[in-house]
Amino acid sequence: MAGAAIFDVDGTLTDTNHLHVVAWWEAFRQAGHTVPMADIHRAVGLGSGDLIERLLGADRDPGQDEAISSAHTVLYGTYFDRLPAFRRAGDLLRTLAGRDWRVVLATSASGAELEALRRAVDADEAVRDTASSDDVDRGKPAAEPVELACRLAGVTPGQAVFVGDTVWDMEAATRAGVRGVAVLSGGIPRADLERAGADAVYRDVADLLDHLDDSPFGPGPG
Fold first, then answer.
1. Which domain of life is it from (predicted)?
2. What are the tens digits of pLDDT across the range 169-187?
3. Which of 68, 125, 164, 172 has the fewest C-beta atoms lying within 10 Å of its C-beta?
4. pTM of the entire structure?
């Protein structure tokens, strides 16, 4: 067994970050808040509660949180039948599984959203397990989702590699003691990802697949 290949989904395997930005922007607007889309983009990847607090502040009216989160869920749900996977995302998961890596998804998505994302990637046969937001008390950048993914795969942190697109992903990997591989497809600058702990950075999952043998998933250290 080669180890655990842990993947974030939004912005990593699927081209969905900007759909989240628009849905959150409208959810905030409906609640009477004007939040710049650039700020929302930087917060994508956090769990709903953490994202709302980051964007509205700790002194906000927390009584609005549930309504804002629910509005985002409804708005984002209108895209479920056409969520786009990144080119060769499924191929990457199948290739890693074929090389005896245990593929686990670690995502803040759950329920119908997670089902829609998995349909888009279309590689369920390669996915061993999923650590979703329903399974942890604290989402990324806390280590808990990555630690759970390691347990589900039956590996130690030193046997795992986590692929993500946000600083929250890289911070979670670092805190869990797992090597972090970043992709630029989520729109976060390379320097920010490296500062957050990325050991390697690729343009997208297709680029990672093209350079797999020279990556942390290659025959060398990994």
1. Bacteria
2. 999 999 999 999 999 999 9
3. 125
4. 0.95
